[in-house]
Design goal:
The protein has 450 residues and is α/β, with parallel strands linked by helices. It has 15 helices and 14 strands. The chain is 32% helix and 14% strand. The structure holds flavin mononucleotide and iron/sulfur cluster.
């Protein structure tokens, strides 16, 4: 990665320009897209959520989308997913909204039904509900093809969940229409095998999402932001490609009921692009959708550098830039970028260890480089009551972080390393093909130690 100090001073003309998105205006163009945290307790938003989202808001981000929140009991029986179908979620969300608003960011809830895709334990769970009797990808369980009354029940559940989020004071809701989940199962010819009014030709396959949009609007009114997260390309045989989505998106936005479209990658693509992928590989999908809709369009995918984000906006390829893991790795990224402190940013390296990797073990997320992610209160760096002389032996990543934190707490720190350079095993790991970013934390700590 090029060090920011090697580049000319960047003027962020676009990144810090406010934008109106439906009923609210964001202070800048940086968005943290939805990501499941597994912080929910008993299906309800927790203190951990509050601290996590408040730290992003404090770090200067414009917009935070929550995480996939279940709209119906068939969407989640797992306690680590927020049960938005329960009124009990309203009160904890009120506290969260107030903490986020205190720091000037906006908060939008993602409404989700997984359909045939279900993670977590299946024992004791309700049957999977989908448009058709298709196999679930995690547990190979065949989904129940919903009867029309059940389809209507789910549509109503989206509306009811949106109403709860409005009551809780959130700034909007986003429909989870990608990554192979229920809305996309209905939309795609790959998964929708119905022969009734909800399946068959494209108009019928779009009926479910259009009725969900109507139900949400009926529940929240016109002065509340409603967005759609969608695939620019499913990247799956028999699925919807970019040309299909360019035909479909105007049909979904035509009625003026959607306030933004957030374009990501379908389940067949690199939903969470790893280290070996280049920066911003999927911006072309957002740019393609932006050509055909007249609402703000979000782009996403391994955008970790504010300079890259600025360039996307300057080229008019998108209106909002997601820096999701980038912000997980350094919640202060927006403030640092705005103040021109680019070298101080701790860059996400796309290792997918602390975030995505932990979800696979049904553990709450954190970040391999930012241990305080998701533990903001417990790991808050406070001045030490007794100042000591601290000797840290070994300048691998753990030693470097220990030295950094001890110094910030006011101790007098010496860091010892037998090699000539810092980084320990990171230096070895970075030599493998596609793994150069393993050396990025070394740059970060060297700068911190100056
Ligand atoms: C731990 C984790 C959980 C995620 N969960 C969701 C989710 O609940 N809903 C969603 O739309 N996307 C989810 N995503 C995808 C992110 O919103 C985003 O598209 C992805 O991380 C790529 O963006 P980035 O490179 O800026 O991180 C998740 C990503 C991660 C890392
Ligand atoms: S764990 Fe790795 S991929 Fe995830 S946010 Fe941290 S640095 Fe990025």
């Amino acid at each position: 990665m090029t060090s920011a100090s090697e580049r000319p001073q960047v003027q962020f003309k676009h990144l810090f320009t406010p934008l109106k998105i439906g009923a609210f205006t964001v202070r800048n163009r940086i968005v943290s897209t939805a990501h499941l945290t597994a912080f929910a307790e008993g299906g309800l938003p927790s203190e951990r959520h509050l601290n996590y989202w408040a730290s992003k808001a404090k770090g200067g981000i414009g917009l935070i989308i929550t995480e996939d929140q279940a709209v119906h009991p068939t969407a989640a029986t797992d306690p680590f997913v927020i049960h938005t179908y329960k009124d009990a979620c309203i009160e904890p969300f009120r506290r969260i909204v107030s903490a986020v608003h205190e720091h000037g960011a906006k908060l939008v809830a993602q409404l989700w039904h997984p359909g045939s895709i279900f993670y977590g334990a299946r024992e004791g769970s309700l049957p999977l509900w989908s448009c058709s009797a298709i196999p679930g990808s995690f547990h190979a369980e065949t989904a129940h093809a919903m009867e029309v009354e059940e389809v209507k029940e789910i549509i109503q559940a989206f509306g009811d969940s949106a109403r709860r989020m409005r009551e809780a004071g959130l700034d909007g809701v986003e429909l989870m229409g990608t990554h192979g989940f229920l809305i996309e199962q209905f939309m795609s010819p790959r998964t929708n095998e119905r022969g009734d009014e909800y399946g068959g030709d494209e108009e019928k396959r779009l009926r479910f999402i259009l009725e969900v949009i109507d139900a949400v609007r009926a529940a929240v009114g016109s002065d509340f932001t409603l967005g759609l997260r969608t695939s620019g390309d499913q990247f799956q045989g028999g699925g919807l490609g970019l040309q299909d989505m360019k035909r479909i998106m105007p049909k979904l936005t035509a009625a003026g009921k959607l306030d933004y479209v957030s374009v990501t990658v379908g389940a067949g693509g690199a939903i969470i692009p790893p280290m070996y992928m280049p920066a911003a590989p999927f911006v072309y999908l957002a740019a393609g959708i932006k050509e055909v809709v007249d609402v703000p369009v979000f782009c996403v995918g391994r955008i970790t550098d504010p300079v890259v984000a600025e360039d996307i906006l300057a080229k008019n390829q998108a209106d909002m830039v997601a820096m999701t893991r980038a912000n997980l790795c350094d919640p202060e990224l927006p403030n640092k970028a705005r103040e021109g402190r680019l070298d101080e940013i701790r860059r996400c390296i796309g290792c997918n260890e602390g975030c995505w990797g932990r979800l696979y073990e049904i553990l709450p997320i954190t970040c391999a480089l930012n241990p305080s992610a998701g533990r903001e209160k417990e790991m808050e760096i406070t001045p030490a009551s007794v100042k000591k002389t601290v000797m840290v032996i070994g300048a691998g990543i753990a030693g470097m972080e220990a030295a950094r934190v001890a110094a910030l707490r006011g101790h007098s720190v010496s860091l010892y390393e037998k090699d000539e350079q810092l980084g320990g095993q990171l230096q070895i790991a970075a030599k493998a093909p596609g793994r150069q970013d393993m050396a990025e934390p070394v740059r970060y700590y060297e700068y911190q130690f100056k």
